[in-house]
Design a protein that fits this description.
The structure is a homodimer of 180-residue chains. By secondary structure, the first copy, chain A, is of the alpha+beta class. Chain A has one domain (3-145): Orthogonal Bundle (Arc Repressor Mutant, subunit A), CATH 1.10.10. Chain A is 44% helix and 20% strand. A three-stranded mixed β-sheet of chain A has the order 4-3-6. In chain A, strands 1-2 form a two-stranded antiparallel ribbon. In chain A, a hairpin with a 5-residue loop joins β3 and β4 (111-114). The longest helix of chain A is centred in the first third of the chain and has 17 residues, at 3-19. The radius of gyration of chain A is 18 Å and the shape is globular. The interface between A and B is large, with 50 and 50 residues. Bound molecules: zinc ion (ZN) (4 copies). One zinc ion is lined by residues 105, 107-108, 110, 146, 148-149 of chain B. Chain B binds a DNA duplex (30 and 30 nucleotides) through α4.
Chain lengths: 180, 180
DNA sequence: TGAATTACGTTATGTTATAACATTGCACAA
DNA sequence: TTGTGCAATGTTATAACATAACGTAATTCA
């Protein structure tokens, strides 16, 4: 495991201790799996991935429980659009971000955790409020095509009109926290 | 079935004919089921619902295929956040909307198909482009709490602090079409 | 130490979605 | 009219994602 990931795990461990929770060995391994793998993984993919990488065996059930824990601790996020999970890319930062925002490449599953300008977010909230709904701390997820894949797709298009990315239909998702 | 729904089905039928596709009896029934039921339904819920309402039996498989057809025809939409389906609320309007936008109540599954101001959408697109992704014709889905449910939840909160909506974690989803 | 709590293991089951292949019904040409 | 093709639907199986229920082990703390 890379030095960088070890540092992140150590930081995550500190965060948990500070919050009175425990980042156990299993939980560290799952988090390491997520950090190690660049793209988003489903719970079942994570089972396989951890088995390969660490020779550890996890039941899918355990992975789900651990992912739930990591989410609570803001160490990982569930991508509702993809039914997959990613490590938080802000483990070392202090602020507890309450509105993580993700771009998910539909082609290669690369995920980018971004910051949407607050005024865009508040414009969205206002529109939603006008419609009689409440949208708070939105976790926004957007199905996209990353530039890499777009370039590849363009190459293909030249050879083979009509196909490739042109057919893909994707979705942007915003998870919001209501209440409190 | 209500007069209003019959009118919508007739309009949908016309649209299909104009496009050279066929809104068969089965397809009409599934669409009627979606129109009849106010909230979003999963494919399996739709199987049950149609059975109850129309005494027709559908295999889940057929329903999935029919939903796929209705989506192509823009007569229904798949809500990627909820893994559920709704009838399009613009069947009678002429413009083929390429950016449907939905608010989904996490509590009662009520769905509202709204219009987000174009400048908000383009601000989002710009942010996404800056991050090296492409977001086109976004179908935005937002998990929300509707005002009705919020009111109810507040009532509960008074009696029972901490619980209810406060725990729900939801997501906004944006489906986008890339290419072309 | 012993009770309470937390984490983890295990098995079963529920839910959503697709694959693969068979059958039906209709349009149209021979 | 019969055959052929094609779209729609039926049927069965299975993949993929997720949770329920219950038991055991480890940890915490009085
Ligand atoms: Zn994060
Ligand atoms: Zn990509
Ligand atoms: Zn619509
Ligand atoms: Zn509601």
């Amino acid at each position: 495991m890379s030095k960088r990931i070890e540092t992140l795990i150590a930081q995550a461990d500190k965060n948990c201790t500070a919050r009175g929770t425990r980042l156990t060995a299993k939980r560290k391994q799952v988090l390491a799996g997520l950090l190690n793998c660049k793209r988003a993984l489903s719970a079942y993919e994570l089972v396989d991935y951890c088995e390969q990488e660490f020779g550890e065996t996890f039941s899918a059930m355990s992975v789900y429980r651990i992912l739930e824990f990591l989410e609570q601790e803001q160490l990982a996020h569930r991508l509702n659009l993809a039914n997959k999970y990613v490590a938080c890319s802000h483990i070392c930062e202090h602020h507890s971000h309450d509105a993580p925002q993700f771009l998910i490449c539909q082609s290669c599953h690369k995920v980018s955790e971004i910051i949407i300008p607050p005024n865009t977010v508040s414009a969205l909230k206002q529109t939603v409020a006008d419609a009689g709904f409440e949208l708070k701390s939105p976790q926004i997820e957007m199905n996209c095509i990353c530039n890499d894949c777009k370039t590849k797709a363009l190459g293909r298009d030249h050879r083979n009109k009509q196909h490739s990315v042109a057919h893909s239909q994707s979705t942007t998702a915003m998870t919001t926290q209501a209440g409190t």
